[in-house]
User: Fold this.
Amino acid sequence: MSVKIAPSILSADFARLGDEVRAIDAAGCDYIHIDVMDGHFVPNLTFGPPVIKCIRPVTAKVFDVHLMINPAQPYLEQYAAAGADIITVHAEADAHLDRSLQVIRSLGKKAGVSLNPSTPESVIEYVLDKADLILVMSVNPGFGGQKFIPGQLDKIKRIREMIGGRNIELEVDGGVNLETVKAVVDAGADVLVAGSAVFNGDDYRVSIGALRAATGG
Ligand code: DX5
Ligand code: ZN
Assistant:
C-alpha cells in the first residue's frame, strides 16, 4: 500500500517557516501537517489562522490542519478561510463532534476526527459517515519528539476494520520514525505524520525517502 507522508511543521524552524514549507514540498511530502495548539487543550501554544494564511501561497500541497484547541467549533470558519484543506478536530474537545464535522464539510473542507491515546475508537462509530479522515494520536498531543505508545497499534487496527470500504483516510501522529513506521503501516495507517523524523535530518528528501522505504513502499 502506498502511504502519504505529512511532515509536521511543529518541528520546523519558525524563523524560516516559509522556506521550511517550500523545502518539504520540494522534498516530496504529500501533506503539510499543521499543529494548532491553544495552551488549554494541550500544554503548548503554537499559531493560528494568520500564520497559516501567510504560508498558504508558498505551496499547493494539502494543508492538513490538526486543531488541538478547545473549543474548536467557533473557529472552524477562520481555519477554512486561512487555507486549510483538511480540518481535524479532537473528539475530546467540543461537546458536539457530529456538528463540528458537518460544519467543516459545509465549509467545503475535508473533516477529520482525532483521538487522544486514552480515547477509545468507539467515539467515532456514529460519525463515520461524516468523516474524511481519522487521526490516531500515538503520543499525548502537545509536543514533538515524544516516544510512540505501542498500545495504539491495536486501536489503529480496530479503526481500519471499522472504516471497511469507506473512503476515509487513517492518519497516525506522534513518534513515527524509522523504528516505528513499519508497525504503524502494517496496522492499517495510510497517512503518516512525522515531525522530528523529517525535520531533524539535514536533507528532507532523504528523511522522507527513508520513511517511505521503511514501510516497504
Ligand atoms: C503532537 C503533534 C504532532 C507532532 C509529531 O502534539 O500533533 O504532529 O508534531 O511530532 P513527532 O513526529 O516528532 O512525534
Ligand atoms: Zn499533529
